[in-house]
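Structure ticket #2291
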Amino acid sequence: MAEKKKMAIVASKATLDMAYAPLVIGTTAATLDAEVRIFFAFGGLNILHKEMNKKLPPPQGMEEMPQLASNVGWAAIPEMLQMCKDAGVKLIACSATMKMLGYKEEDLIDGVEIADADRFVEFALEADSTLFV
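Resolution: structure written out below.
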């Protein structure tokens, strides 16, 4: 029996476009039976924040992005995160970034793993595909 493909994604920014990219790609890969882990570091950690993920800014010059995303059937970021979890995507918060930003586990959505970069890198080194967003 063939081993599952693995995809490692780093989410490093928290504008709306930079949040949708790893979530859409991760969910899609998971539905194609890949093992997917998304590591949220630096600004990307805000995607996992219970309150901040509800008001991520659109990219400069694309203020209409929330409507455009809705037009193509994309849900809001909190719902996209739930879709990822439902598809089996592991959402990993960078523990060092949490310390830098003063975040506590309770600031994040439920179901998030907190880990150092080395644990994610071990997975990424074995992955068939690694993306940095």
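Closing remark: Residues 6-132 form a domain with the Hypothetical Protein Ychn; Chain: A, fold (CATH 3.40.1260.10).
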